[in-house]
Design the sequence.
């Protein structure tokens, strides 16, 4: 190109300016603010100007890590995310494999149904599931013959119901991605394995699986990132975290601390903890992406 | 024989997966007494629009529908413009901080935006003091945050599409006397349109589905609520108006569903393009 390097840089930044402005102001600056707020005692009185800001240093972190409820919620978040991730992957992978063995119209029917589940907004999906599992008017209780049984009252059935809903709307992504991955394996590779006398199981285990490994890694980590920060489903289905907050996960906990209890400093602290955890997972994600061949 | 079994099983799974949506639409058309019947049946002989009428009049759903549409469409339009320019800069130009910017774009996508509710709440509060339209309780605040959330991925994805357009094309256009501006909007823009479709759909859906930020920002201005919040109006501890809730859910889901089905092929090729980069 005929333009000088310096001119290129200037044009480039002119093009980038709107994006940098938005991202700087509404992502970078809030991240900085998040950390800052987490270092202060920032409650309703400080917000309204009734009390001076008090710098706590790591006081909020100390308080949080010493709080029994935080560790309970943390454990629940990890367990809930684990169940969702494993469920999503198993259902998605199983259906992706089945999808390769059926005729096109059957596959399209499955994919269309999955597309519907995938595209349902989280709020709508949650309310539909609540209605289906309603104690008195729900279709599921009618079929099972257990009218009056409340799925959302007991802590564990409530978590199970939310997990099922999350799996319902997130397995399509895994299924479609893995299906595309399986389809992308060249037929010659599988034929060669068959010619060499490998059994169907042997081919799946020693040829297909290793070839799919990068894709499996990517969908796994993507699922972990998504399921770790579920908010809407928990909030809607357990009415803000369940009775006495026993269905809380970190995201909802942070929201309740900040906006229900007006402990903005503590809410921000939980936010920082979550961000650090997820960035840690992201590092693995980046390495997985690199291995699967994506280049910067 | 085995294929028949597999196919039968797959069809049953498809039916189970689609069932919640079927139930939603069915319940939206059921008369009220059938909805609160103790023996719900998976059909209705007396379809009615009562629930839709109730949702649209009692809860003013039409207004919230428009609010959601306005937010989502403005986010999409701005995100197309801004991400197209940024992606062009990042692929067509060589400058010092380019790689740093790319890495930051990737990292920023991983920040859980849910964690940012507290700082963003205070940011919007102070923005509102000087520019009310972008402050709390106004749709502008939602437009701003969803724009910010959708940009990193949109830019990241569009890079692949811009890069796929041969540089020779730009040289040819320059030789033919086209200005850089004309090349940008009349040659490059139409060529990356498939990528723009894919990113737009994702930005639209993010803005459309958002519950958390609508709940955080739109505190007291009921007239500025969006659909996800409005749906909560019907959810009461003891007496849920399930008919209206299902009608509302249907109204909320249909646009996304149509969108998804219409562009699914482009979406998949778009995603593939982004990955191939």
Sequence:
């Amino acid at each position: 190109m005929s333009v000088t390097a310096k001119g290129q840089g200037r044009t480039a930044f002119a093009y980038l300016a709107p994006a940098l402005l938005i991202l700087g102001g509404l992502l970078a600056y809030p991240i900085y603010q998040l950390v800052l707020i987490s270092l202060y005692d920032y409650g309703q009185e400080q917000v309204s100007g009734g009390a001076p800001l008090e710098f706590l240093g790591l006081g909020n972190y100390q308080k949080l890590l010493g709080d029994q409820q935080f560790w309970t919620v943390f454990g629940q978040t990890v367990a809930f995310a684990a169940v969702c991730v494993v469920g999503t992957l198993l259902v998605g992978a199983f259906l992706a494999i089945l999808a390769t063995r059926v005729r096109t119209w059957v596959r399209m029917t499955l994919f269309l149904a999955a597309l519907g589940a995938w595209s349902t907004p989280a709020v709508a999906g949650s309310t539909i599931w609540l209605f289906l599992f309603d104690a008195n008017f729900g279709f599921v209780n009618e079929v099972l013959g257990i009218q009056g049984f409340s799925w959302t009252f007991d802590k564990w059935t409530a978590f199970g119901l939310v997990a099922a809903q999350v799996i319902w709307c997130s397995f399509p992504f895994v299924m479609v991605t893995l299906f595309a991955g399986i389809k992308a394996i060249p037929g010659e590779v599988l034929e060669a394995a068959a010619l060499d006398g490998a059994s169907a199981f042997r081919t799946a285990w020693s040829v297909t699986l290793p070839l799919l490994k990068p894709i499996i890694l990517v969908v796994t980590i993507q699922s972990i990132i998504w399921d770790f920060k579920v908010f809407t489903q928990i909030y809607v289905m357990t009415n803000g975290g369940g009775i006495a907050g026993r269905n809380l996960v970190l995201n909802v906990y942070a929201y309740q601390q900040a906006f229900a209890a007006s402990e903005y400093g503590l809410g921000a602290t939980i936010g920082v903890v979550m961000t650090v955890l997820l960035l840690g997972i992201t590092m693995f994600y980046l390495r997985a992406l690199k291995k699967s061949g994506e280049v910067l | 024989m085995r294929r028949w079994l597999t196919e039968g099983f797959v069809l049953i799974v498809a039916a189970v997966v689609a069932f919640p949506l079927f139930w939603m639409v069915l319940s939206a058309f059921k008369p009220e007494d059938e909805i609160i019947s103790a023996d719900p049946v998976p059909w209705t002989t007396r379809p009615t629009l009562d629930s839709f009428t109730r949702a649209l009049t009692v809860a003013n759903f039409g207004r919230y529908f428009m609010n959601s549409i306005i937010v989502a469409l403005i986010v999409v339009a701005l995100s197309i413009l801004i991400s197209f320019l940024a992606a062009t800069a990042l692929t067509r130009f060589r400058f010092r901080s380019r790689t740093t910017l790319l890495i930051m774009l990737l990292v920023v996508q991983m920040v859980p935006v849910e964690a940012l509710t507290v700082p963003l709440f205070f940011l919007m509060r102070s923005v509102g003091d000087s520019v009310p339209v972008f402050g709390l309780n106004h749709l502008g605040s939602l437009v701003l945050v969803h724009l910010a959330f959708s940009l990193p991925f949109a830019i990241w994805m569009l890079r692949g599409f811009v890069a796929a357009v041969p540089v020779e094309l730009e040289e040819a256009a320059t030789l033919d006397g086209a200005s850089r501006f004309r090349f940008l909007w009349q040659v490059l823009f139409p060529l990356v349109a498939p990528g723009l479709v894919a990113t737009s759909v994702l930005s639209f859906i993010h803005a459309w589905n958002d519950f958390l930020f609508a709940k955080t920002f739109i505190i007291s201005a009921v007239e500025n609520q969006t659909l996800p919040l409005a749906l909560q109006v019907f959810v009461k501890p003891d007496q849920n108006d399930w008919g209206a809730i299902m009608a509302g859910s249907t109204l909320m889901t249909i646009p996304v569903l149509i969108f998804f089905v219409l562009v699914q092929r482009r979406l998949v090729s778009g995603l593939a393009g982004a990955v191939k980069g």
